[in-house]
Amino acid sequence: MEYIANTLNNLVHQTAFLNLTWGNYLMIAVACFFLYLAIAKDFEPLLLVPIAFGMLLVNIYPDIIKPFSDSSNGGLLYYFYVLDEWAILPSLIFMGVGAMTDFGPLIANPKSFLLGAAAQFGIFAAYFGAIALGFNGKAAAAISIIGGADGPTSIFLCSKLGQTDIMGPIAVAAYSYMSLVPIIQPPIMKLFTSEADRKIKMEQLRPVSKLERILFPIIVTIVVCMILPTTAPLVGMLMLGNLFRECGVVRQLTETASNALMYIVVILLGTSVGATTSAEAFLNAATLKIVALGLIAFSFGTAAGVWFGQAMKVVSKGKINPLIGSAGVSAVPMAARVSQKVGAEADPTNFLLMHAMGPNVAGVIGTAVVAGVFMAVFGIV
């Protein structure tokens, strides 16, 4: 009987119920809420499902992301997380995005680059805000990239600047805001546009030749990487993926980069990012500051894009719908879809998706360029 009692006692003490804190239960509730948004509301489930499940796992079993040491092996998700720290997964994500994305709208309307650039003002607003809240320069730079709603670039810059201690909160904030674009952006877009603005119909984009499509990723790689060589892992992989798509001679590579490889990387990156949100690591003042700064930056970036869209509307004498400026953040193609949705609410016959894809692609490139600027400022090679 004593043996049975000891065995049962050991089993009871091995359960998570006796080892979890109130913070763990709170994070489990947050994970379940994210799963609800992903599954029931269809808010970017490809991102939110793995992130939320990683969050769930680490708060039930914290050792699942335990680092490797001389005395023990690391937890399963630790090895996934190392690929984040080495900037491997973010670069592969960019290649997949390039292979999946049509750059034609940006080529057809180069003015879209201006809208993509305008949306990056949110990054600089977050940078100075983080400095004001007491973060050092490198930490502030890493935090500020959240304003571009670009998870891979946020992780990449954190790694390059040596800010891995805050990579978890930054990555979770960036990916969460990417997923919540359909909730965050529409109120801001409607605040700074009138009903008449939202009803503006834009002219059909000109056809883009195959030669232009092939030359674009090559030229962008040469120009951007010559000016900011440290952006090569991101910009280079983005353009390589797009070259796969447009050259027409590597169909197998295009399919792999945009499907199988992309989804494998999303699983590894999403679960490992979610697993950085243990209650001990996430529920503290610094993390709350990061999350708040990210929301402010993303909101400001959206607003700046719309404001610049308004300016371009005036210059073009009403030919540009300012809603497409909000797509200048890097959340591709989610932000472009939101521009389409808000425009269609005002006029169901208004089709803005392809026009919004130009600023959206420009935003991806712009955020990578801003990351390169920060690395140059801090002497990272």
Description:
- This protein has helices spanning 2-14, 22-39, 45-60, 76-85, 88-100, 104-108, 112-118, 121-132, 137-144, 151-160, 167-179, 181-191, 195-198, 210-227, 232-247, 251-274, 279-282, 285-315, 334-346, 353-377.
- It is globular.
- Helix content is 71%, strand content 0%.
- It is mainly alpha-helical.
- It contains 20 helices and no strands.
- The mean pLDDT is 89.
- The longest helix is centred in the C-terminal third of the chain and has 31 residues, at 285-315.
Structural class by helix and strand composition: mainly alpha
Number of helices: 20
Helix content percent band: over 70%
Shape designation: globular
Beta-strand fraction estimate:
under 5%
Descriptive terms for the model:
381 residues; mainly alpha; 71% helix
What topology does this entry show?
Elements lengths: L1 H13 L7 H18 L5 H16 L15 H10 L2 H13 L3 H5 L3 H7 L2 H12 L4 H8 L6 H10 L6 H13 L1 H11 L3 H4 L11 H18 L4 H16 L3 H24 L4 H4 L2 H31 L18 H13 L6 H25 L4
